[in-house]
Amino acid sequence: MTSRILIAALVLTAAIPALLMGGVSGVVAADGKPGPALSGPVVSSGPHPITLDRPAEATNREIVDDVKRVRNYADQPPLIPHAVRDYQIDLNVNKCLTCHDRRNVEGSQAPMVSVTHFQDRDGQTLGTVSPRRYFCTQCHVPQTDAKPIVGNRFRDFDAVLSTAPAKEGAK
Ligand code: HEC
Ligand code: HEC
C-alpha cells in the first residue's frame, strides 16, 4: 500500500517539469495569437542584431563659456555656465561650495550662493547653507548645444506684457 503511494508520488514529481513546459509553450498573447517561443536562442527583434557593434552617436558639447544666461523669470535658478563633470556632491564633500560658499568666493571669484540658500523652510536664515539647498544640481543645471527635442512656446514675461490686449475699461 505505502509503496503504491510512493510510486504515485514519484510519477507526479517527474511529471511536474513536463507540465510546466507544456504550460509555457502554450503561451498565448492577448490578441489571441500564439506568443513567442520561450526556448531556443534569443534573437533581437530590432534592426540591429545585439551582436553588432554600432558606432556611438556623437555627444553634444557642454556649454562652458562662463557667460551668465538670462533668467526666464526672476526666481529661476541660474544655469551653470561652466563644466561640472566629476564635481562631487555627497555627505562629506560639496565641490560647488568650495567656490560658491560665503567664505570661498574671494579666492574663486564665483558669485556667492544667495541668502535664500541659507534659509530653512520656516524662513530662518542659518549660518551655513541650508540642507534643502545642499544638492545644487537638483536645481542648477549646465547646458549643452543639443537641439531641443520638442518645441516650446515659452514667452518671456516682457513679451507677453507688450502684446497683451488692453483690457476693456481698464484704467
Ligand atoms: C572652481 C570654482 C567653481 C566651482 C567648483 C563651481 N563653480 Fe559655479 N561658478 C564659478 C564661477 C567663477 C562662476 C562665474 C561664471 C564663470 O566664470 O563660469 C560660476 C557660475 C555659476 C553659476 C551662474 C550664476 C549666475 O548668476 O548666473 C551657477 C548657477 C553655478 N556656478 C553653479 C555651480 C554648481 C551647481 C557647482 C557644482 C556642481 C559649481 N557652480 C561649481 C566657479 C565655480
Ligand atoms: C531648491 C533649489 C536650489 C538648490 C538646491 C540650490 N539653488 Fe542656487 N539658486 C536657486 C534659485 C531659485 C536661485 C535664484 C533665486 C535665489 O537667489 O534664490 C539660485 C541662485 C543661485 C546663485 C546666484 C546667486 C546670485 O545672487 O546671483 C548661485 C551662485 C547659486 N544659486 C549656487 C548654488 C549652489 C552652489 C548650490 C548648492 C550648494 C545651490 N545653488 C543650490 C535654487 C537652488
Question: How would you portray this structure in words?
Answer:
This is Periplasmic nitrate reductase, electron transfer subunit. Belongs to the NapB family. Component of the periplasmic nitrate reductase NapAB complex composed of NapA and NapB. The protein has about 170 residues and is mostly helical. The chain has a domain at about 60-145: Flavocytochrome C3, Chain A, domain 2 (Orthogonal Bundle), CATH 1.10.1130.10. The protein has helices spanning about 1-25, 95-100, 105-110, 155-165. The model is unreliable at about 15-30 (pLDDT under 50). The chain binds heme C (HEC) (2 copies). One heme C binds near residues 96, 100 and 114.
Number of helices: 4
Name every ligand kind in the structure.
Answer: heme C
CATH architecture of the domain at 62-145: Orthogonal Bundle
- Rg on CA atoms, Å: 31 Å
Order of helices and strands: HHHH
Q: In percent, how helical is the residue content?
A: 10-25%
What is the strand content? under 5%
Family: Belongs to the NapB family.
Subunit structure: Component of the periplasmic nitrate reductase NapAB complex composed of NapA and NapB.
Subcellular location: Periplasm
Signal peptide: 1-29
